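INTERNAL AUDIT FORM
Audit reference: QA-55
Scope: verify that the stored structure record matches its stored sequence.
Auditor: D.O.
Record contents follow.
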Amino acid sequence: MLDPLHSDSKHGHLKMKVAISGAAETSFLTNENLKLCEDIGREVILQGAVLVSGATTGIPLWAAKGAKLEGGMSIGLSPATVER
């Protein structure tokens, strides 16, 4: 039986996807809070999964940065109807 979390699939088709969502506005967060968001993104990749987010600024961006630092895959699905 395939273990989707630890699959060797090159493209991530069989890997577990982990969604990260949160506020786009982060002015109320400290640098330590933002680092934790980045660490969460890193940990998703370290656990063999693919990060999925809302492709926006703030918490999703920091998690995606962490995923990128680990060389992992990050998929962003934006609900936006216009670019501002």
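Auditor finding: record pair retrieved intact. The chain has one domain: 4-76.
Action required: none
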